[in-house]
Amino acid sequence: MSKVRLGSAGLAAALLSLGLGAGTGVTHAAECIAPANPGGGWDFTCRSIGKIMYDIGVVEDPIQVTNMAGGGGGLAFTHVVSERADDAELIVAASSATATRLAQNAYGGMTADQVRFVGAIGADPGVIVVADDSPIQTLPELLDAVKADPASVAFAGGSAVGGFDHLKVLMALDRVGFSDITSVKYIGVDGGADAVTQTVGGFTQAMTGDMSEIVGFLKSGDVRAVAVLTEERVPGFDDIPTAKEQGIDVVAVNWRGLYVPKDISDEDYQKWADALQTVADSPEWAEQMEANGLAPFTRVGSDFQNYVDEVVAEINQMSKDIGVIQ
Predict the structure, then answer these.
(1) Which of 228, 180, 218, 186 is nearest to 204 (CA)?
(2) Which domains does the chain have, with CATH numbers?
(3) What is the pLDDT along the chain (326 residues), one digit of tens a residue?
(4) CA angle 48, 53, 59 (to 5 degrees)
C-alpha cells in the first residue's frame, strides 16, 4: 500500500486549508475499504471521495480502494476493529445501512462505538409518497390516518421488516406520539420500484423509500411525495416539503460517509474530518452529487458522530419494540 503524505512543501496550500503545518511527516490513509463488491453506494463513496481528495490536493497520492464484501458490511467492520484499530491510514465507506445493521446487532456482536464516524457529505433523501389520486395531501394527514385506524393504512417499502424504509415511517409516527408501532402495517417488497407499484395499484396507501427510487414515477405523475425527510428541500424537487416544515421533526436519509478505526489519535481523526469537509465544499463534489442524484447532507466530525450515536440508539430501541431483535 502506498503512503499518502500530508506535510510536503508541494502541498502547502492544502495543508494550510486543513490547518496543518508543512514538514510534519504525518501520513494520511492510502486506503479506502468499500465493504461491498465494485458498483453500488459504498464503492461509489470510496472511489469518488478518494479521487476528489487527490484531485484537489488534499492527499499527495491516489487513495487505493479495496473491496471487501461480506455480511452487509460486517466483514470489513470486523477487519477494521480486530486487525487495524489504530491504522491512521485507513478510511472506510459507510451509509445509513451501516448504522442500521449496527443498531440491530447484525455484525456478530460488534458495536458502533468500536470505530469513529468521520462524516457524511451527501445523501439519497428519504421520501414518503402516495398515489397521485390519493386523498392524502400532507404527511400529518397520513400520520393522523394511521393514528385513527392503523389497519386502514399500509406502507410498502423496498427493505425487509425492520429495515430502514420501515423505520422511516416508525420514526415519523414516534414524533407525533404514536407508540403502538407493532400495529403499523408495512409490506417489504423487492426494491423501491415494486413498492411504488404496490401503492399506485392501490394495494398499499403509501410508499416509503429513497428519492432515487421515485424520480421516474414523479415525472410520470403516478405518485406525489408528501414529504422528503431532509433538513431542507432538495434542489430540483423544490415543490416537495420536508417533514420538518410540516411539524414532523424527522430526518432520515441514506447518507454517504466514512468511518475510521477507533484508536487513531484525535489529531488524525480531525485531519480526516477536515479533509472530508474540504471535499464537501468543492465544486468537484457538487458535480458528483448532481450526477448521482444526491442531496446536500453535510455533517462532519463530532457533529456527525453524535448524529450516528443518536440514530443507532433510536433504531436499536425501535427494532426491539417491533421484535426484530431481542
Answers:
(1) 186
(2) 4-123+254-321 (3.40.190.150), 125-246 (3.40.190.10)
(3) 333 433 333 333 333 333 333 332 334 447 999 999 887 789 999 999 999 999 999 998 999 999 999 998 999 999 999 999 999 999 999 999 999 999 999 999 999 999 999 999 999 999 999 999 999 999 999 999 999 999 999 999 988 889 899 999 999 999 999 999 999 999 998 888 899 999 999 999 999 999 988 988 999 999 999 999 998 898 888 999 999 999 999 999 999 999 999 999 999 999 999 999 999 999 999 999 888 878 889 999 999 999 999 999 999 999 999 998 98
(4) 140
Q: Is residue 115 a contact partner of residue 92, using CB atoms and an 8 Å limit?
A: yes
- The backbone torsions φ and ψ at residue 67, rounded to the nearest 5 degrees and listed phi first, read -85, 125
* DSSP structure string for 18-42: HT--TT---EE-SEEEESSSSSSHH
